[in-house]
Structure formats: structure tokens, C-alpha cells
Specification:
Elements lengths: L4 E6 L8 H8 L5 E8 L11 E6 L5 H16 L5 E5 L4 H7 L5 E5 L8 H15 L5 E3 L2 H7 L5 E2 L18 E5 L7 H14 L8 E5 L6 H11 L6 E5 L7 H6 L2 E4 L13 H8 L4 E4 L2 H6 L5 E4 L3 H14 L5 H8 L4 H17 L1
Parallel strand pairs: 1-2, 1-4, 2-3, 4-5, 5-6, 6-7, 8-9, 8-11, 9-10, 11-12, 12-13
Helix pairs in contact: 6-7, 6-11
Length: about 350
Amino acid sequence: MRNKKRVLITASDQFGYSTTLFKYCQYSTSIFDITYIGWDYNLPKIELAGVRVKYVSREGNLLKRNVGLLRAFHKEISLGYDLIFLTYVRGISLIKLLNPHSNFLMYIDTFGVMPNASKRFIYDAILKFEVSFFSNVAVISEGLARRLGRKKYKMLPLGGECFNTEIKSFEQLELLYVGTLDNRNMIDCVKGFHKYLQKQKINERRTIFRIIGDGPNNELEEIKDYVKTNNLSDNMEVLGYLPQDQLSPFFKSANIGVCYVPMFSYYDYQTPTKLFEYLISGLPVIATRTSENEKIIEPWAGVIVEDNPDSFCEGLCRLQEQKSTFSSTRIRNEYNKHTWKQVVGSYFIPLLNSSIN
């Protein structure tokens, strides 16, 4: 396509390590001329045809790093773009003030999710203040828009990739959790699974729970220790972090997706990407009772539980009772509109075009 509109995406993430931003780029390079600028975390560089990536050093203390990132954004914006797609970093309102005639779309996909309430309150207050400088704002959910206090906003929902197209058998339950372990209380999930094994008197390798992910605070080691101490190695596999291109075999093997998000107020309007990926791949789910999960999960697509071991155990018992009613084909077909390709085509590209025009 000739004369593509020039779009700049600014972020704190190194390119390729925010699934959302990577997918937005991946499925829109045929429409837009995209440049991405973000920090260099010295992680392996990920390339994507059609996207120019510019890296900013993270040397120095927190203040120096943030100022350096904002300065790099400002310098890049001066080169001239049809649209600047901003993700939130501290001080982002300065970019608006320094570039009053540039065309911005401010994208918000989360509030503060740090466990410390005081830090979260301060972070959220600053974010709301800074976002108020922008007239064109996109959010992932109506709940986030309400928390921002905005009446005018655009919707830009999340999506997921399909990792499996095979028809599932539900004869034996095979659970899969993929995602971060940071502040997720996954040990409660593991304890609930243990209770389920005991309740069902399962002592052979016919019910499996695989956990793929890691966290910064020894969460992985805690789970591994619990599995070892309680002799669960026949029924649990704790695999640590795996990149996306290695996930397909696990989605093909599993028949239940685990979407365990603690029921904290600051998670209530977050939609985990993996929820869509389970459903798009034909897996019914066991998920905690957040506002977004309750909106998305139909009774024929899984069960909703509280965020404690007993409720997780009860949810697994319900899945066991209902397993003959699940249809992976129905689940996949009904949720196919949430694939990243569909989301980008239906929301991201039209939103950027309308913001440019």
C-alpha cells in the first residue's frame, strides 16, 4: 500500500515483550507505517517485518531513566507522525504539553496493580491527572473508563491467539495455567487442586495440572516446594516461563484453562489475555469472579470460583460433573471474534484511521 500513514508507538516495554502492542503491530503493518520506541531491557531483540524499532537506554537511576525515555519520545515526535499512540509512563503529560499540535491517542490498559495500597493510590491519582491532558483516550474496558472518570473514550479491547484447533476430549481433566505468577496467589490454586485430588481419591496420573509462568518473588520455587512436599509430581508439572512460540503443544494437550486472578479491586476490570487464548483454543475455563470474567464467560464455557483453595476445589468438582456438556468446537466458534487478528481489524485499525482523519 502506497502512502501509508505514519504511526509512532511509544512504550516503556522493550519491543516484543508486550503481547498487546506486538499484536497491534503484527496485524496492522499492511495499513500503517509503524515506528516503535521503548526501553532496551537487554533482552533478546525481537524483530517484526514492517516495524522500525528504536531503543532507549535504561542506564542511571529511576529519575534519569524516565527523563531519558520522555526526551527520546519528544525527539522522535519532532520527526513528524500522523498519529502518536501513547502508552502510559510517568510524566507522559509533559509530552502533550511540549507537542501541543501533535495528534495523540492515549491508550490505558491498566491502573496500578502493586500490592502496596499507598503506592497504588498515588500511582492511580497521578495517572488520572496526566490522562486528563488528552482528549483522545482509548481503554480496554468500560470499567477502566469509569475509574478514569471519563465520559468520552474509545474502546480498544484485548484479544488472544489460537493455539489449538483440534476437537477436545474431556474424559480426563487436564488443566493449564499460562501467565505471570506475580501477585497472583497461585499457591492457593495449587492447594485447591490438591484438595480436589484428595476429594476425588485420584492417585494416578490421569488428572494433570501444568503451570507455565514465573514471578519475581520466588513464587515458582514456592509452588515447586509444595508439589515436592506433598508428592504431587505425578499430577503437577511446574514448567516456569516459556515463550509464546512454545505454547501450542500444551494448549493441544490441555482441556481446561485456568484463569486465576485474585479478587482485588485493582484487578476487577483487567481482562487477562490468556482467558481469550484458552477460549479461542476451545478450552472451557475455571476462572475467578472478577467483573470482566463474569461478563465474558458463558455457563457453557466454564465455571466461576472465588479466590481461595476450597472454592477452586469445588469449581473443579463442577467441571468434572459438567464435562460431558462441554464442546470445544462451540467454545472456539463463539469466541473466535476475540482473536488478535479480529480485534485489530475491528477496533485498532478503525480507531487509528478515525484518529488520523
